[in-house]
Amino acid sequence: MVTLPTTSVLPAPWHSENGTPPPRRLIAADDTLRAEAAYRSACEGTALLWQGDYPGALRLLHAMRRRAERRRPRSAPGSPAEAFRQHRRERARLARVLGMLLVPLGADHHVRLHRAPDVREACRAAYGPLLDNRIVSLRELLGVIGAHQWRTRGVEVPALGARIHPHYGVFSPVRGEYVDLVARAPLPPAAHDHPTAYDLGTGTGVLAALLARRGLHEVLVTDANPRALACARDNARRLGLADRIETAGTGLYPPGRGRAALVVCNPPWLPGRPSSALDEGVYDPGSRMLRSFLDGLADRLLPGGEGWLVLSDLAEHLGLRSRADLLGAVSGAGLRVTGRLDTVPRHPRATTPDRADPLLHTARAAEVTSLWRLAPA
């Protein structure tokens, strides 16, 4: 094991899609480095640049994960909100420690390790063109590979009768219950004469595609993530709906496009700060997107139009937002609730007990996802 100088630490430029800063300290590592020493170095903030073969890097990463999970602190008694914050802090610590195992990536997107798989197509899809060699986190690279597998296979969406293909960094519609709500909610009266809709924060474009399949002739989609807009365009093309679905920028509401019969928004369900690009589909800092949707809705609806807010009550069970807060934001925006459709989750995290995080499992088991039908008061 050779210690590298702390100045000019990396032998090639650092690359992180999540915006993780480059490590300050680095050691070269191979199979002679014991897993306990590797884990201790990573906890202390020293990164490990792997110089063995690719399977050896995977073995070390798994060994580090086992040690991290064995030493995870038990949840301290307290409020659900504090227990959840502790859970997030521990998840962030785990990501930080495991992100310290680094591998070299060539300018042609191949992993420069013996016995490494061909990941060039996956890396090109996530990273775009690279002008030179890079150093990347093995944990991030595995996420890139997994995301490309999802993109290639697609996710079956029964309500759509088709597959949606998520891109890297775009939240996948694996929880189909919220899509089912949009499939069965009655369209507002205005949609019959003016079949126009907005899908705000479109993600993969799954809800936009469903609205187009339901007869909305023009569906404008927005998302703060440019990757999501590209993903929505790709899925619209795959489904033969490119003539009905139009991307309309990274703002929340489409600029200069007037009113619509239907405005749909499925914002991140939990108030909180995201720690990665993918987390932006889960966490909404200060509920900013939720409140911006509500505050702007009345001025964007045609007479007889509706806004559909698709939202889980998980934040309520975790003590992060109350039902009174939500209803107060609705009335404060000059809106009224005209109806609500509810469904319960079907994903394994809601049905399978989690001994490591019993409180979070309890909240998920009690979760209800709702489609709130809103109109001007």
What would you note in describing this structure?
The chain is an alpha/beta fold. The protein has two domains: 25-150, no CATH class; 155-376, Vaccinia Virus protein VP39 (Rossmann fold, 3-Layer(aba) Sandwich), CATH 3.40.50.150. It is built from 14 helices and 15 strands. It has helices spanning 35-43, 54-70, 80-98, 120-127, 138-153, 177-184, 190-193, 206-213, 226-238, 288-297, 314-317, 323-332, 348-351, 358-365, and strands at residues 25-29, 46-50, 101-105, 134-137, 155-157, 162-164, 196-200, 218-222, 245-247, 260-265, 270-271, 283-284, 301-312, 335-343, 369-376. It starts with 24 loop residues before the first strand and ends with a strand.
Choose one word for the global shape.
globular
How many domain regions?
A: 2
Structural class: alpha/beta
Please state roughly what percent of the residues sit in beta strands, choosing from under 5%, 5-15%, 15-25%, 25-35%, 35-45% or over 45%.
15-25%
Write the layout of secondary structure elements.
Elements: E1 25-29, H1 35-43, E2 46-50, H2 54-70, H3 80-98, E3 101-105, H4 120-127, E4 134-137, H5 138-153, E5 155-157, E6 162-164, H6 177-184, H7 190-193, E7 196-200, H8 206-213, E8 218-222, H9 226-238, E9 245-247, E10 260-265, E11 270-271, E12 283-284, H10 288-297, E13 301-312, H11 314-317, H12 323-332, E14 335-343, H13 348-351, H14 358-365, E15 369-376
Parallel strand pairs: 1-2, 2-3, 7-8, 7-10, 8-9, 10-13, 11-12
Antiparallel strand pairs: 3-4, 5-6, 13-15, 14-15
Helix pairs in contact: 1-2, 4-5
